Amino acid sequence: MRSKFSYNLIVRLVGIVVLFVFWKCNQSDSISYKTFEQLPKIDIHSHYKYSREYLPEFLNKWNMKTVLVDVAFENEDSLIRNFDNYLDHYKEFPQYFFLCTTFTAAGIENPNFINKTIEQLQKDLSRGATMVKVWKNFGMVTQDSFGNYIMINDERLNPIWDFLVEKNIPVIAHIGDPEQAWRPLKDPNNPHFNYYKNNPEYHAYNFPNIPSYEEIIQARDQWVQKNPNLKIIAAHLASMANNISEVALRLDNYPNLSVELGARFGDLAMQDSKTVNAFFERYQNRILFGTDFGNSKPDTLLSKENLETELNNLDKEYQLLFNYLVMSDSIVVRNQKTKGLGLSENVLAKIFSENFFRIHKN
Q1: Domain 7-360's class?
Q2: Which residues of the chain are modeled with pLDDT < 50?
């Protein structure tokens, strides 16, 4: 499809020049720009809810496809999902997208909860979904009639996990939030400061009745352990991105567990780059690339200038993450000064796509 935005070509050329200069300035990098550009890439965690005319060319530029991940928001007695939006987008450009559906524990006390949930999942799978996401509704939002928070290891959910194992469907699990969600906002340079400042409804520190971080992580670990045949991808570095030694411990303990990087590059940048590099080397078969990037408005509500800005910002964000993974010079990520990881071609190929296709195969 021919794009109406001539600035796409300019953005692409500028991006190429910028990255090429970075690569030429750092001869210690172990992969050339051309090789990196040609590596297939899967962004396993995105929320491009609405179509964009620029996206096909943009994804082609990076030799990338992406997983459209649905999230369910509970609003009093209703459940707000966006699967139909993602489905429309997927139908328009099926060569660029994978679909990930979702469900919650809302109504778990109803006798028909399991049947209805599995029916919904079957329907979404028949329409193209190949993955399922569970969100922080488990442990932080959904409550039963007695006010108890429903944890991910609730035994009433077992038939759903058995169904997904039978269908060989991977689960992306965003269980819990960063530990900082349970702490007061004090450091403006913390990579999560702005998120919780702008989204106080998710700042668990403001809601002492929410289970503790430790309780939620313990329930998550028990769930992973009790479902050894379920392929689980722990989103956001298992909600432990600020301490990769704890992530490593989970990867050592649970062979069915992998992790994705979405929206946690700032946490990585806070830690010693040599330690982080060693983590990527050791667990190169268990790490997947993700961003959590997306959009929230139809393009009909945006001006040409808005769309230009959106594309430029998106391109800069991807370039920054790629620079951090691929190069080894100084870099600033989410206000954190660090050094790029300078990962090898072999490791990058696994993180960018090979691990995804190994887990995703049906």
Answers
A1: alpha beta
A2: 1-29
Cβ-contact 317, 300 below 8 angstroms: no
Q: Rounded to whole angstroms, how far apart are CA atoms 327 and 341?
A: 6
Say how far apart CA 51 and CA 168 lie, in whole Å: 29
Q: What angle do CA 338, 343, 347 make, to 5 degrees?
A: 140
Long-range contact set of residues 53-58: C-beta below 8 Å, sequence gap at least 24: 53/1, 53/3, 53/4, 53/5, 53/299, 54/3, 54/5, 54/8, 54/307, 54/311, 55/93, 55/96, 56/1, 56/3, 56/93, 56/96, 57/3, 57/8, 57/12, 58/8, 58/311, 58/314, 58/315
Q: Is the pTM of this model over 0.85?
A: yes
- Number of other residues whose CB lies within 10 A of the CB of residue 21: 11
- In total, the chain counts a number of residues equal to 362
pLDDT for 361 equals 78
The full set of domain ranges for the chain reads 7-360
